[in-house]
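Changelog entry: the UDP-galactopyranose mutase record was regenerated in this release. Current contents:
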Amino acid sequence: MFKYIIVGAGLAGSVMAERIASQLGERVLVVERRRHVGGNCYDEVDDNGILVHRYGPHILHTDSEEVFHYLSGFSEWREYQHRVLGFIDGAKVPLPFNLNSLRMLLPQSLAERLEEKLVGRYGFGARVPILELRESGDPDIEFLADYVYRKVFLNYTRKQWGLKPEEMDPEVTGRVPVVLSRDDRYFTDRYQAVPRDGYTAMVERMLDHPCIKLMLNTSHHEVLELRDGQIHFMGSEFRGKVIFTGKIDELFGYRYGELPYRSLDLQFESADTEWFQEVATVNYPNDYDFTRITEFKHLHPTDSRRTTLLREYPCTHIDGENEACYPVFTDETRAKYERYLELAREFEDLILVGRLAEYRYYDMDDIVLRALQVFEERIL
Ligand SMILES: Cc1cc2nc3c(=O)[nH]c(=O)nc-3n(C[C@H](O)[C@H](O)[C@H](O)COP(=O)(O)OP(=O)(O)OC[C@H]3O[C@@H](n4cnc5c(N)ncnc54)[C@H](O)[C@@H]3O)c2cc1C
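Regenerated structure tokens:
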């Protein structure tokens, strides 16, 4: 019999399963609703022969040696430095906004004056939030802060979160930085890569252990039931531990209502051209209804005469219709989540881990680290 049941074969569930199987030699059942493992990192080769990320582009970037070395046990890497351009006033400029973007968008004399003032005041290499630039007392720098806010950030955030301008908190939106360097990379973490054979292959290797049994196309409802402080598996009381990585509100039958998420309408397109754009991702803050276009060939170079693109249209999450992507944090939703946590505490052997169960945005490295930590603290 199984001592552990894990719901969800994304990164959180797969790291937990791998640790339990390889470190403890205990039997684990992994139940996954989708037809595949990997969760939101799932990738597959499409009709153009190109490896595409079906739930949106995923780039591993981390400063954590522990995470990178752990994942290296299951994958080789393709070193990759992510670059993002923003389509602004008809030009494609590096994002985050830096000294190169400044020179590409503003008249030369103004750009030179600004660069001198910014570097003189904040130092070369600094990342200065626009909120701070706005309070500089220098009209040129305040102009720049307002320019970056309007052209790079305002409309992108409106699209992404479906907000009206008056609903946007200037304290939050003012955190966007201007980077005082010529480093055009989107991330500056120590490790940046994509798995050489893809995330799906990496997760498959994690789960490839004689102690792990995987059930795809199976929702937790079909095998588990939580009632009266006890967990039941296939109708009988279950005395092991359940690690749940799905939505916490769903686990408790939406008793206090749904926890809201933003979602994405992901439109893949095959283009009859070798390359479509200069870098993997181009953001469109002000034009069109989509937020960005990703061209997957930049992540996984392929000898194909065609190319595959992905346009992301943000939308409201509707359960059963689209994916829950980004939690919508308000005081009310945090309070609702706390009420669900109270329900979970009634079950001593229930462990919640993962972006959906914890109602948090985690990057991949965060969730790997979190799962390794939960294993140490709650299982070992
Ligand atoms: C558009 C987008 C882009 C991203 N880009 C990046 C990036 O570039 N870099 C980065 O580091 N991170 C990125 N992330 C974050 C990354 O996707 C997450 O860190 C990661 O997916 C979290 O893993 P998880 O296991 O917690 O959740 P998931 O990947 O969502 O896995 C949960 C799994 O549980 C299954 N499941 C849920 N409920 C049930 C149930 N009731 N029964 C059975 N199975 C169930 C689901 O089908 C899923 O497979 C991005 C996220 C999004 C939305």
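The pocket of flavin-adenine dinucleotide is lined by residues 7-13, 31-34, 39-41, 56-60, 219-220, 245-247, 250, 264, 325, 354-356, 362-365, 367 (CB under 6 Å).
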